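Data availability (excerpt). The following record was deposited with the supplementary files.
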Amino acid sequence: MTTTEATMTSSKNSKSKQQPAEHNGGPVWDWAAGHGPVTGALSATTGAFAVATTGAATAMPPGWALAVGAAGAIGHTAAGIRLRNAGRTIAARAASWLVGAGWTTWAMTHGPLTWQALGSLAVIGVGTATVTRSTNLYEEAREEEALHAEERAVALELSQERRAIAEEWVERIQRVCGLTVRVLAVEHWPTGTGFTIDAELPGGTTYDQIAARAAGLSADAHLPHGCTATAGPGIHQGRTLIDVSTVNALETETPYPSDYAPLSLHTGIPWGYRSNAEHIQTYLREQCALVVGPTGSGKTNMVHVILAGFARATDILTFVIDLNAGSAGLSWVLPALNHQPREGERPMRPGIDWLAGTVEEANVMLDAVVRVGKQRKIAYQALMAREDTDLLPVGPSIPQVMLVIDEGAEILTSTDKTLKELAKKILEVIRMLRAMGIRTVLTALGSTGAVLGNLMIRREAKVRVALTGGEKEGMDLSKLFPGTRGLKVDQAPYKGAGFMGTPESPAALFKCWRILPSQIREIVAATSERHPVLDDVSAKAAGEAYARRWDADRIAWMHSPEPSPLAPADGAVGEPRRGLNLSALRDRPAAQSGPEQGAGSDVDRLADAFMREIDEHFGTTTEPDHSRPERDRPQRPGLNLSALRDNRDSTPEQGATAGRDSGPDWLADAIAAITEAGAAGMKPSAVADRVNRSRQAVREALKAAAERGELVYRDNGPHSVYVHPDHA
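Predicted structure:
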């Protein structure tokens, strides 16, 4: 029945959303909103009046209205039982159907337009609104009570579990450490890998007494391998927080997060995660860092994770020194050097700002860094006075310089004369340039006394990492983390796992993410537009050494796939290198002979000159030719010797001249490819791939062609190209 349906529906839609609407004036009707107690009762009474009036005018049988009302009451009673409504709610809804149907039947019989009929209808409407409001409030109260009861049941269950954990660990600490503590709270980790116990210590004791027995507590609790019970400082000195890991989160290899969102030096750079899966943030505005790890412990991967964080930061420029052929930084440079920008595309910037792979380049870099730091001290005094700080305000406009030195701790302890000079400059950077936003990250092969014997390293490198990988030799954790007890190498036997301590977080187990070469290339591309630019004051202080750091001659070693020639041994200066004894090279004419032919060739030349002079003065006859005529031999295919490639179609003299004048035979194809490239030109690496030659050989040939005027070299740092003169 329409009248009662509106009344019943009003209780269900009392919490309908209201849709705001803009209007200029007058009432606004929200036709999508449900009925409340008042509007529902009004709709029900007007509907009943309309049905009664229409039925009386058309002589409708009154029993029909009563039958529909009974059916509606039965249907709502069944629905209320299914929804588990309260009994009073079911009775109120059924009664509203029956009362509305009864009034409609009576009004159709006696007439709906009498004052008696209208007054009774108004009373029914008010009663329906009151009852509906009452039942709605009662149902809401029942729902809230049910929710609270469920929460109380869960809390009771958790409380019982926490009480059991608290009682168990109070007994365990008493048994293992001889201390009686009072557990104040037990907090489960969101990752589900463990829990933290907040305990109050007995008088006169410290948390160190529990931390020293961490291994005993872990064994007594039968924790899995790699899980520990580590005690740390609490909210005050009389309390301690005991972190108990129950799932070994360090066993599995976790890839580096694929979210390459911007980072900042001031909000922290993530380097890994704890055993509770919590990320570790490092704050390096004033601190240096030291990362130690033997071979195979994941130290190189850790360096790449560090460089990834620096590349994502908007206020950091990274300089890298790696005397092992620059291997730590090449992965962050080559994607940009090999990038060929399309039309309208900006060149890709390397992931690091400067890379030094030799002692000479490292000296140039450190000299420039020292000049930058000293010039900043002078030029930014007014800025620091305005900001009322003694630290240079570092940001995207004045970026911090992070100097990452792979195996830099070994450089500081080396006895080699050249490395000792390099070490002095590194220590000068560490000692003098903290306030000016220049900090270092050093790596080492182990935490030995030789590495940590330098007071400057121990004092400035407050962020310390020990990648153990299960290696015990040269891993003295007590020297790397003095004052921290209970750390054992065998707790982190996995590659990339170890211990990490910062001024904000005490030394504890951690693991570094695994970063793949493909991710490095993705990060270089994703952060190319994000890197800051060195401020003008610092750039002027760094000078040409910094401005020309990507010149072709200074980065040529990054492209060359050919190994550098071995240095001659002592006393062997000038001696030829021994190679294959090729017959193709044995019988070369004198025109191709060089000084390497030795003293015998000089004697032969003197003898020939002497014989010619005798013939001129004494008119002697020529000697008869007793040599046997050469036999015609059929041409056979043989080895494709590089010694013969450039002289296939010319005499030795002509081949040498042609090689000097026009270059190798593949140079024509290279020039044609460069011509096709148009004004954009081509990089030497792209030309090498086109003609299938080594980059070093292609670079030398193109350089010679540019000197002859056949090509034009357009110097643009790592994006330098060769262009045909027609397109230059």
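Summary of structural features: Confidence is low (pLDDT under 50) at residues 1-23, 563-601, 620-660.
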